[in-house]
Specification:
86 residues, mainly beta, 3-stranded antiparallel β-sheet, two-stranded antiparallel sheet, 5 strands, 0% helix
Length: 86
C-alpha cells in the first residue's frame, strides 16, 4: 500500500464525494425558493434539500447516473428538471 486512496476504474478516488451546486431565481420571494434533487440510478425518490442549493453523494458504486434538480416558487409550485446532468 502506498498510503494514498485507491482509485476507481474512472480514475476517481474510491472514497470521493460528489457535490452538485445549483440555483433558481425568484425576484419576488427569493427566501421562499426550495429545492429537491435526485440522482437517477441511485436515489429511489426525490431528496428534499430545503433552501440548500447543493446535493452531496458519497461512496457511489460504479454505474451510470443522471442528476436532476427542481425548484419551487413562493406558491409551492415545482419546476420540471429541464436540464439533467450526466
Amino acid at each position: 500500500m502506498s498510503g494514498r486512496p485507491s482509485k476507481t476504474a474512472a480514475g476517481f478516488p474510491a472514497e470521493s464525494r460528489l457535490e452538485f451546486h445549483y440555483t433558481a431565481l425568484s425576484f419576488l420571494f427569493p427566501e421562499r425558493v426550495r429545492f429537491r434533487y435526485m440522482l437517477a440510478g441511485f436515489d429511489r425518490d426525490w431528496v428534499d434539500a430545503g433552501r440548500a442549493a447543493r446535493g452531496y453523494f458519497t461512496s457511489l458504486p460504479p454505474g451510470s447516473y443522471r442528476f436532476r434538480v427542481a425548484a419551487s416558487n413562493g406558491d409551492g409550485i415545482w419546476s420540471e428538471s429541464k436540464t439533467p446532468w450526466l
